[in-house]
Amino acid sequence: MLISLAIYRSGRRWLPAERTATRARSIARPRLSRQERSVVIVLILLLPVLAIGTVGNQQIFNAYLLWVPNHVDMVFFGRTMPTTWLITVDAVVSIVGLLATVAFWRLWSKRFREPSEIIKMTLGFAFSVGALLSLTAAAAIAISGRKASIGWVLAFEVLNSIGFANVLPVGLALYARASPKAVAGTMIGVYFLHLFMTNNLVGWLGGLLERLPGPQFWALHAALVGTAGVLTLGAARLFGQLLTPTGAPSSDAAGAEGDAQLP
Prior knowledge:
- With 263 residues, the chain is mainly alpha-helical.
- It has a single domain (33-257), classed as Growth Hormone, Chain: A, CATH 1.20.1250.20.
- Helix content is 69%, strand content 2%.
- The chain has eleven helices and two strands.
- The protein has a two-stranded antiparallel ribbon.
- The relative contact order is 0.18.
- The model is unreliable at 250-263 (pLDDT under 50).
């Protein structure tokens, strides 16, 4: 980066002269209406829900990598796979899961009414709970003294990737569409604050790995994600009309997956 900066500085004399922008007369930004303020408040209140709902996905890069090699038989087709293989599997399955989710909702919309973003997120949390219960089952097997089958890890990866595809990119689509136009850009930035909250929570939860038995550790994650699903469903019932006004099209996962490249 320093070399690039030095090259840029040395070559500035060959660049076209900068035009002095005429200072435009400042235009007062229109104030948000009461309904728009309500939308902003609801979206901000959803951030902690998203934070606890994504702990399972974000834990992949923390305690998951430490726990799996010691409790799961990593032999795959007769070959013991390294821990780094888990990251590769997660990346491949995540991409396939995103594409499959886009295809599914497009086919669904041809025959049925497509659900709103917040309902899709609720479904995504349900899949994420199933993924974490797979790890809970694997931990219950491993606690008996023998390592669990790698099939439990693969089940986790598949279910978690489906959940990821219906939560993170769809959530971004919700914030981009539902936010008032005057603050849409700001609200998209606000949306990513939930990852800051999640990663702090994931670090704290990871510290429990040595203090809790495996089944309790992963069941705790499943309970947190399940709580997020219940709260999201409640938000859909209470604020669904506010977030998706009558006549407003629901953004599907395809509209946001190109913008959200999250682990």
